[in-house]
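Late entry, written up from scratch paper. The run itself happened at the end of the previous shift, but nothing got recorded in the book at the time, so transcribing now.
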Amino acid sequence: MSSTFVTFFQTASVIVAITVLKVGCQRLENEDRFPSPRIVILGATGVGKSSLANVLLGRDKNYDGSGHRDGCFKVQSKLDPVTKATCPDRGYFLGNTSLSEFTIIDTPGFGDDLVKEEKTIENLVNTLKNEIKYVHLFVIAFKQTDNRMTYALRSMLSLFEKMFGRHFWKNAVLEATHWNFGADSQRIRASADPQVTREFWTGEFNRILRREYSVDQDIPSVFIDTYHDHNNPEEVREFQSYTTDLFELASSLRPFECKDIEIALTEIREMQNDINKLQKETNERTSIIQNLIEEREELKRQLKNNDIEFVPPSCEPRNGGKTYCLNNKCYTPTETALIAVATLIVGIMFGVIGISQFKSQCLPDEKEELKERDRLQQKERAQRYRETNGSTNTLDRSSTQLIQSAPDVDTMEKAKPAYTHRGIHETHC
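Output as recorded:
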C-alpha cells in the first residue's frame, strides 16, 4: 500500500514538472551549454549544499563527486569543507530523463578561512559573470536549526547583497536543510517555545530581511530533506511537493543577469584592510623617528670630532619660580591686588582733574553769558515801554527814574538768583 502511495506522488510530480517545462523558460544565448532553468545553491559551510544539488540531479545524496574537480558535488561526513570552487552541472530534474535538462551550480561554503573565502568570492563572481551569465533562482540554504540570525549569517547575507545587488532577492528562495518530517522530529519542534513551525521559520527570516536589508517582499521557502526516509509516505510526499515547488519557481522567474555583479569584500576583510592601513602608517612614523635619531647621533659625533662641547637644553623644574623669588623681589597675590586697586584710584583722580581743566579752558564762561543776557533783556523792556507810550526820542521823568533805579547786573549776582541752562529764575524776597 505504501509503495503504491509513493509511486502515485512521484508520477504526479513528474507530470507537474513536464507541464512547467512545456511552458518553457526564456531561451538564452548560452542555452546549449547551460540549459534553463539555472539554479545556484548558496550557503555556509556544512549546510548540505552539495547533497541538495546531487538529489535535484537525481543522484545519491552521498555522491562522491566522480568526474568533477575541486571537490564539486562531493559529499563527505568530515567537518572540513569539500567544495573548493564554483561548479556548474547539467542533468535531469530528479533524474527523470523524460524531462528536459536544467543547470545546477554548486558553490563553496562561506565562513571559512579569510584568504580562502576571498578566493571563493572571486571564483563565484567570475563563473557566474563570464560563464553562466544568467541565473533563474538563488537557493540560500540554512540548517533547520538556524532559526536565529547569528553574526555569521548576517555577514553572509550582506556579502550576497553586495555581490549581486538588492534586486537579486526577487530571484531568491530560502531552503531549510535537514528538516525532517518524521514524527519524532515534528514532536521535538512542537515542544519548543515558541514552536518551530515552517511558518515561524520563514517568518523570522523574512522579518530580519525586511528590517536589516530593506527587502520589500516576502522570500518564499522550501523544506527539502535530502535525507528523508523513502519508505515513509509522508516524508516522500513532502519531498516531492517542495522539490516540485522549487522547480516551478525557477522555471517561472525572469532570469537574473549577472553582468553587473561585483567582487565584494567581506566585513572581516574590510576591517583587516583598515588594520593594515594603520599598521602601515605606524611603520612610516616609526621609520621617521628612527631617521631623526640617527641624524642626531651623527651630529653628536661631528661635534665631538670637532671638539665642540654639546650642551643639551635644560628643562627648568616646575618649582623654578620659587627659586627665582628667593633671589629676587616677588610680590604676593595680596600685594599685587592692592597695587592694582591703588593704580585704579590714581587713574580715576587724574581723570577728574583732566575733565575739570578741560571745562575751564575749553568751555565758554557762564557768568559772562548771563550778564550779556541780562543787558539784552533790559534793552528789550525799555524798547517795549517806548513803543507803548508812543515816544521814540524822550522818556518821562518817572520812566527815566525807573530805568536808572534798575539794579545793576553785579547787584543781581550778589542777590544769588538761581540760574539754569534753560532759563533764569528770579528770587523773590
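The CA atoms of residues 299 and 355 lie 66 Å apart.
(Scratch paper discarded after transcription.)
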